[in-house]
């Protein structure tokens, strides 16, 4: 009698052959795939990719991640602007003790960083990187600890640049101070910043004038900083007065031109013509100018000659001391500097 539970020999042979083929294929597949696939991403690249994805989620939460968002999203001042310059003027800075007492009683800053901020400000007064009292006050009111990334909080008041993601950086505080004091901003003047970045520079500017306009080209970074400002408005309402835009800063912000002062925080080997056109006669532009490896922070004044022609005067604010900033790029990532080698890397500021 035939056993119904027995397995035909042909099936057993087929299973054995399948196992052998599977074993061999399992050994050779990884090498075949690796030969055709791209390299494995480094940890830093994975982290950067995750940050971009996180920023995209934030955009969806804001309801701005749509085809219309593109490079045209703006956050503009609504209603009356907070008077940052008036607040700065009311702050006593005669001594560290008086200033600390006022800050603790009138502000929402963390007390952990106040003494470091005071020391750094006075270091820059001694080095002449902060020259005007108004600039010292603005520097003392801007909480840099909110604009660095969490992993760099211990370096918030170190005199160095720090990475903030997406290939961008927060500039050295001494350079921020020098560029700010060179602009010589007065209350009521309209100021345009190219390269919002972390938002720290605009935070300082908001205590010098109520008319601050800033542009960022990196979409996820723009979203992060926009959200940061919104969050900080609860404790520091002055940041609600900062007008910000996602777009290509090379072309400025014509809708609100002309500007009394323009600050560029990325390097380029020429003065962008659209920005020069949007600068008022008698106005000042400060920017890192020059090819890679030979950049200098330049003060450019736009004047009018007796015959009515426009003239420019330039001054190297650091008297020959070179600096390095990230390049001024367009929406495709290409540098606007005509002299920049394709493969050359620039150490970021």
Low-confidence stretches: 1-7, 21-51, 66-71, 341-349
- Give the C-alpha Rg: 27 Å
Helix content: 25-40%
Order of helices and strands: HHEHHHHEEHEHEHEEHEEE
Total DSSP E strands: 10
Description:
It is a single chain. The protein has helices at 9-36, 43-62, 84-90, 96-106, 114-126, 133-141, 173-183, 200-205, 219-232, 273-278; strands spanning 74-75, 162-165, 168-170, 190-194, 211-216, 242-246, 259-264, 279-289, 296-304, 310-316. The protein is an alpha/beta fold. The chain is globular and about 55 Å long. The N and C termini lie far apart (88 Å). 38% of the residues are buried.
Would you kindly provide a brief summary of this structure?
The chain contains 10 helices and 10 strands.
Give the SSE map.
Blueprint: H1 9-36, H2 43-62, E1 74-75, H3 84-90, H4 96-106, H5 114-126, H6 133-141, E2 162-165, E3 168-170, H7 173-183, E4 190-194, H8 200-205, E5 211-216, H9 219-232, E6 242-246, E7 259-264, H10 273-278, E8 279-289, E9 296-304, E10 310-316
Parallel strand pairs: 4-5, 4-7, 5-6, 7-8
Antiparallel strand pairs: 1-6, 2-3, 8-9, 9-10
Helix pairs in contact: 2-9
């Amino acid at each position: 009698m035939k056993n119904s539970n027995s397995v035909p020999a042909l099936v057993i042979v087929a299973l054995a052959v399948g196992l052998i083929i599977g074993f061999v294929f399992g050994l050779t597949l990884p090498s075949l795939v690796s030969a055709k696939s791209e390299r494995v991403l480094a940890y830093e690249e994975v982290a950067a990719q995750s940050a971009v994805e996180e920023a995209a989620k934030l955009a969806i939460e804001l309801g701005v991640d749509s085809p219309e968002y593109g490079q045209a999203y703006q956050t503009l001042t609504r209603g009356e602007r907070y008077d940052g310059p008036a607040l700065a003027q009311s702050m006593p800075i005669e001594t560290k003790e008086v200033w600390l007492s006022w800050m603790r009683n009138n502000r929402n800053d963390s007390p952990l960083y106040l003494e470091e901020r005071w020391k750094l400000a006075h270091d820059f007064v001694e080095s002449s990187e902060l020259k005007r009292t108004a600039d010292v006050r603005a520097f003392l009111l801007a909480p840099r600890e909110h604009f660095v990334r969490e992993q760099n909080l211990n370096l918030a008041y170190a005199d160095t640049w720090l990475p903030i993601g997406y290939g961008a950086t927060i500039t050295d505080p001494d350079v921020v101070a020098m560029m700010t004091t060179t602009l010589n901003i007065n209350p009521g003047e309209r100021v345009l910043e190219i390269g919002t970045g972390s938002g720290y520079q605009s935070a300082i500017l908001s205590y010098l004038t109520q008319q601050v306009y800033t542009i960022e080209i990196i979409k996820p970074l723009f979203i992060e900083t926009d959200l940061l400002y919104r969050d900080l408005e609860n404790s520091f309402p002055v940041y609600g007065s900062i007008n910000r835009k996602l777009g290509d800063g090379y072309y400025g912000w014509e809708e609100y031109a002309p500007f009394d002062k323009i600050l560029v925080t990325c390097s380029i080997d020429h003065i962008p013509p659209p920005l020069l056109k949007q600068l008022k006669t008698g106005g000042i532009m400060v920017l890192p100018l020059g090819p890679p490896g030979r950049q200098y922070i330049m003060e450019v004044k736009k004047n009018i000659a007796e015959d009515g022609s426009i003239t420019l005067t330039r001054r190297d604010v650091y008297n020959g001391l070179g600096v390095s900033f990230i390049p001024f790029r367009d929406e495709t990532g290409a540098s606007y500097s005509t002299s920049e080698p394709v493969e050359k890397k620039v150490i970021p500021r």
